[in-house]
């Protein structure tokens, strides 16, 4: 079973700053990784798929990169509405999610 | 805009059964794989099951095999999850979701809470 590890567990930044979230896989995923955003009281929403493709309607300040075992979600110019938990997910063998990174605004 | 609405959750005793439903308001339900994903109280997410367009391919996470059954009715634009032998470890919010682009979940419904407790 492929295990996804996310870091940091919590990220607290000021509006306008850049957030860098990491997802590491226990074995190579090629580019089969997605990122989801879950705001309080809402279901998860697909942000990025296939490592770097933004889903429909996702603002350009969200970007994904990486391949193999190391992936990054970057939120440039952080806005208060970006407060959420961010999960990564693979579809390489089965489907599993990382434990999430909580993004707070200072 | 596609909307998925789950129902059927509630409080059930250990060993009990529950049937969840998910209604898809879109026009393309029959064209998609569909999945159930659950979120535990500690917020972890777990894929539970998926089903292809004509129900000829079905997959489950190991922890629910033999206890849960996923099904669909394309005429009713509906997805189902029949759950038997429930334990406290099945307590979670259950979401239905479309499977798109080979294996990503989009969109998700609002979820239905299943609580297994005596």
Structure description:
The complex is a heterodimer of chains A (106) and B (118). Chain A is an all-beta fold and 106 residues long. Chain A is 0% helix and 51% strand. The model of chain B has no long low-confidence stretch (mean pLDDT 96). By secondary structure, chain B is mostly beta strands. At the A-B interface, strand 5, strand 9 and strand 10 of A face strand 5 and strand 10 of B.
Mean pLDDT of chain A: 96
Low-confidence stretches of chain A: none
**Number of contiguous helices of chain B:** 0
Q: Helix share of residues of chain A?
A: under 10%
Strand content of chain A: over 45%
The chain-level mean pLDDT of chain B equals 96
pLDDT < 50 runs, ≥5 residues of chain B: none
**What's the alpha carbon Rg of chain A, rounded to whole Å?**
13 Å
What integer value in Å does the Rg of chain B equal? 13 Å
Query: How far is the first residue's CA from the last residue's CA of chain B?
Result: 40 Å
Major sheet details of chain B:
7 strands, mixed
Subunit arrangement of the protein: heterodimer
Q: Portion of residues in helices of chain B?
A: under 10%
Beta strands of chain B, count: 11
Q: The biggest beta sheet of chain A, please?
A: 7 strands, mixed
Give the strand content of chain B: over 45%
Principal-axis shape of chain A: globular
Short recap of the structure:
The complex is a heterodimer of chains A (106) and B (118). Chain A is mostly beta strands.
What structural keywords apply?
heterodimer, A: 106 residues, mainly beta, four-stranded antiparallel beta sheet, 11 strands, 0% helix, globular, B: 118 residues, seven-stranded mixed beta sheet
